[in-house]
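User: Hi! I have a protein structure encoded as tokens and I'd like to know what sequence might fold into it. I'm fairly new to this, so please keep things simple.
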């Protein structure tokens, strides 16, 4: 309860902070922008997620099985501009999942790799207010996740269900500073008698352009520093109509990162996510950290 109150206070404070000035893009968070590097680009990254810590009702406990899970996600992301205010995006994740545990004194290892669940989305900007070296944009988004990943592998690469996502986005940019908010709700359908809990995601990102102080040409290399707060709250899953106790919960990540815009066509970026809150229901593995390195190339 105390952690949930802290999470709420953090987001309320950030919603009312007015950035001073910038033009960059968030990494984990989404943006209401529909131009520049947000459309007609090829984006990819390698994201590594480590899970080893065991939690019971939000508190860290020992794990006699010494379980470890490592997830590598390398998606291909292709946003295409259909109009100046409308973006269609395809996300095709390439996954590798490794799991380990000790049972009866023996170390057991499982791994799987392949294509995960495909996601198709639309983003529509419906409000903009431009000023001298500043802008504010509002947008909505809608997406569908298709069961293209193999859920029969162990570990599974997909959920086997068709899921739906809706959300809203806000971006505010003023000279060297930017702020982005996005809030989304994911509705999971049932597959093989299991319905995974619905998910609410809320992200806040702040960006500051360190270099250059002033642009001299479009060829200038730009260095941006980024700080994000990424939260994810998930309801408990159900199987055969019964609620599964060891599912769902809330996580909040503090995520510092960087972006190097190397001229008009290439972005190099990195992000490190550290969990500051993990209020998980029942007994579950927590996330140790997530690290990401990637690029965006405009065509």
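Assistant: Happy to help. Inverse folding works backwards from shape to sequence: for each of the 299 positions I chose a residue that suits the local structure. Here it is:
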């Amino acid at each position: 309860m105390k952690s949930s109150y802290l999470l709420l206070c953090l987001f309320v404070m950030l919603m009312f902070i007015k950035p001073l000035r910038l033009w960059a893009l968030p990494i984990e968070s989404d943006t209401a922008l529909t131009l520049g590097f947000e459309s007609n680009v090829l984006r990819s990254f390698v994201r590594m997620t480590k899970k080893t810590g065991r939690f019971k009702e939000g508190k860290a406990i020992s794990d006699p099985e010494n379980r470890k899970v490592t997830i590598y996600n390398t998606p291909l992301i292709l946003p295409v501009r259909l109009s100046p205010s409308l973006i269609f995006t395809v996300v095709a994740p390439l996954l590798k999942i490794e799991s380990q545990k000790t049972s009866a004194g023996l170390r057991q290892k499982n791994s799987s790799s392949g294509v995960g669940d495909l996601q198709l989305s639309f983003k529509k900007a419906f409000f903009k207010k431009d000023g001298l070296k500043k802008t504010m944009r509002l947008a909505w988004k809608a997406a569908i996740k298709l069961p293209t990943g193999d859920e029969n592998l162990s570990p599974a690469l997909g959920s086997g269900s068709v899921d739906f996502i809706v959300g809203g986005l806000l971006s505010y940019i003023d000279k060297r500073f930017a702020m982005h908010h996005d809030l989304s709700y994911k509705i999971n359908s049932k597959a093989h008698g299991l319905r995974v809990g619905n998910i609410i995601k809320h992200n806040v990102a702040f960006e500051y352009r360190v270099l250059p102080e002033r642009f001299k040409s479009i060829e200038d290399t730009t260095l941006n520093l980024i700080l994000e707060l990424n939260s994810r709250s998930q309801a408990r899953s159900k199987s055969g109509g019964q609620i599964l106790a060891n599912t769902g919960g809330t996580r909040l990540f503090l995520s510092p990162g960087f972006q190097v815009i190397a001229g008009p066509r290439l972005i190099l970026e990195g992000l490190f996510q550290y969990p500051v809150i993990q209020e998980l229901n029942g007994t579950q593995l927590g996330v140790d950290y997530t690290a990401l390195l990637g690029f965006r190339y405009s065509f």
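A useful reference point when you look it over: Residues 2-298 form a domain with the Porin fold (CATH 2.40.160.40). Feel free to ask if any position seems puzzling.
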